Amino acid sequence: MIVIIAEKPSVARELAQIVGANKREDGYISGNGYCVTWAFGHLVQIVTPESDVPWKAENLPILPSGFYLEPGQRIGPDGKRQPDEGYVRQLEIIRKLFDECEYIINAGDAGREGELIQRYIYAYVGCTKPVKRLWISSLTDKAIREGLAQLHESSEFDTLYAAGKARSEADWLVGINATRALSIIAGKGVRSLGRVQTPTLAMVCKRYLENRDFVPQPFWNIRVTAQKDGIPFKAVTKERLLDREKAEAALEKVQALGQLTVTKMEKKEKSLNPPYLHDLTSLQKEANKRLNLAAQDTLDIAQKLYEKKVLTYPRTGSKFVPEDVFATLPSLIAQQQAHARFGRAAAALQGQQLNKHSVDATKVTDHHALLPTEVVPQGLSEMEQKVYDLVVARLLEAVSPKCDMISTSVELNADDLVFSAKGNIIVRPGWKAVMNDKPEKAKEGEEEEQDLPPFAVGDITPVTELECVEGKTKPKPLHTEATLLEAMEHAGKEVEDEDLKSALKDVGIGTPATRAGEIETILKRGYIVRDKKALVPTAIGLAIYQTVKDKYIANVEMTGRWETSLSKIVDGKVSAQAFDESIRRYAQALTSEILAISDISLKAAVMAEAEPEAIKCPKCGGPMRIWDTNVKCKVCGHSIWRTVAGKELSDSMLKKVITTGQTQVLKGFKSKAGKEFDAALKLDSEGKITFDFSKVNENAPKQSYSQPLNITTVAEGDTPPPPPTLDDMPYWM
Q1: Which of 11, 53, 54, 413 is most buried by a 10 A CB count?
Q2: Nearest CA to 6 among 143, 101, 136?
């Protein structure tokens, strides 16, 4: 008897059908000499005895000498983690089948994580039987049969498993130490950090702060409509004008002149190559832009389409195909002639020489680019159809001819004021005819793409309309999932050091299969939220970023280098042991670095998160509690007294001065000499109350008292001291 083990039940059913196993058993399907069983994803996980040590600084870092395996966990009714009963039961079924079989066929997902899942199961159940490897890129009947006819030796994938194991243990070491260290200094709750999620959070927060703190600068452009041979066209000043008066003077000058003179004209033919085929990341980016789909939703839909046999393996990081796969594309394209939207584009390619822009076997990793299969989809949901269509469209684009166009650029002069106009005429649309997208609108201050009349240097073009348009410089937009995936894929671009940027040119953080999950993780942690398409950090997310932004854990280039090292383990160029040793040194340094943080802003954000309605401390942002005699911060101990110069402030007055930084003019203050006076209250830069006489009428004292009132802080839990008496007050009159 031969055992085939898949990663999930749905895949096992497809395999069972091909090998003739049709009898449903408890935890497997049998028949025709086969037993086809399955995992439930990560059926087994790594743990150590040190996992249960108390969360105290003296117990860090946790650097176990080794790991052992246990069934996956779930949260029990008591809120504690415990082995999942279903996982335990399935593992016992797998153990029994392995003991009774002749050999095993590993039919796990063909990638690093799929190999890791399978090998952990073998180790946990004590498997000693021979193992063959099924390696396929789609679940069509044809692909499965061909794969079963060409099984690989399991040893061919030992380095892939080594890389998966190294990744798993590295994430455990970094995650447990960084998370516990940060949670300890935060003072409350679990504050998760990770080698990929934290640099990803840093990207979102950095972009948000750049956007928030950006100071727009005004500028002006002169826009004109002119004519050449009776054909109107638009032009705009080539350089932005930074002074309103100069802009208005320029407008009057052009108006008085009434014409533009052509001083420069460039006309050239250019061709745009088609885009490459989709890998998972590019599909997720396009689905986010066109369909507003979250990256994880796109992956989930692509996985369903894979299991329905209409798409090839979705978790691919390659945009290329080898020659033998390229040879199958004409039949796939011919099949798409019946497609409701792209049938005409598919028909136009029949008998044509296909563009080989996406053919490069050296750039094919574990799997080739995403492709539709020969199976005609039926009964797809609306969103499944739309994601499938994106893959079909990209296939048709990738093999279509280049887009040929004539690009014209013209400069015109009006008394030394230079205008420019640009236009493109598409001669042959090529790949652009597939989606037939409308041209994007011109950005503020830029000239529009247009059909231009023929020009020659020296031509005079009369002006028919003109206007002075004010604009403002804009910051980089907030990250969307599409732009964040782009940033994760090309993390090296974020690096400022030019030498390092060159070294990290093609380095990303995470993998195509994991990036969506990392984004979902920081969403679930409450570190970021979706605001329409934009990703915006929460207060706690910003506080964590500010706390660790210059620490090892948020270092993008280091995380990118890890991915490079993991790839080199697969290629046999780096040993897993050397990688493990470097990770352990890193975890030790990281833990010390986080525990040494003394900034209380994170603790303040944590407490403020727990008490969102509380008054926020003007010094640290933590929640403040109103007592009978004062208001005190629960985090830093900063206090503000209720009685000021003999006047007792109401709760509303205290809230007003703390939340807005000032009050209106108040009556009833008394000096040490017993004289009554009026004054407004305000907070100084240290969060202390001072008097403000600037709002008092002409008969009020003109002096401004700037010395802060005497404020005494109290330790948490102590009884607040009695309010100060008038004898404690300094003279100010």
Answers
A1: 11
A2: 136
DSSP letter string over 306-321? HHTTSB--S------B
Q: How far apart are CA 120 and CA 67, in angstroms?
A: 11
Kindly state the helix (H) or strand (E) to which residue 714 belongs, with its residue range: none
Question: Residue 104 — φ and ψ, nearest 5°?
Answer: -120, 140
Q: Which of 25-29, 238-242, 450-454, 536-540 has the lowest mean pLDDT?
A: 450-454
**What single-letter DSSP state applies at residue 477?**
P
pLDDT tens digits for 573-590?
Answer: 999 999 999 999 999 999
CA-nearest of 274, 281, 286, 370 to 320 is 370
By residue count, the chain amounts to: 733
Please tell me the distance from the alpha carbon of residue 358 to that of residue 368, in angstroms, as a whole number: 10
Tokens of 27: 């935890």
469 contacts 221 by C-beta, under 8 angstroms? yes
Please name the residues in contact with 600: beta carbons below 8 A apart, sequence gap of 6 or more.
620, 622, 635, 636
From residue 264, how far is each of 409, 416, 457 by CA, in Å? 8, 13, 6
Position 726 pLDDT exceeds 80: no
208, 276, 313, 545: the catalytic one is 313
For the entire predicted model, the pTM comes to 0.77
The reported pLDDT for the residue numbered 14 is: 92
d(Cα 520, Cα 298) in Å, to the nearest integer?
12
Query: CB-based contacts of 598: which residues, under 8 Å, 6+ apart?
Result: none
Residue 151's pLDDT band, with cuts at 50, 70 and 90, is very high
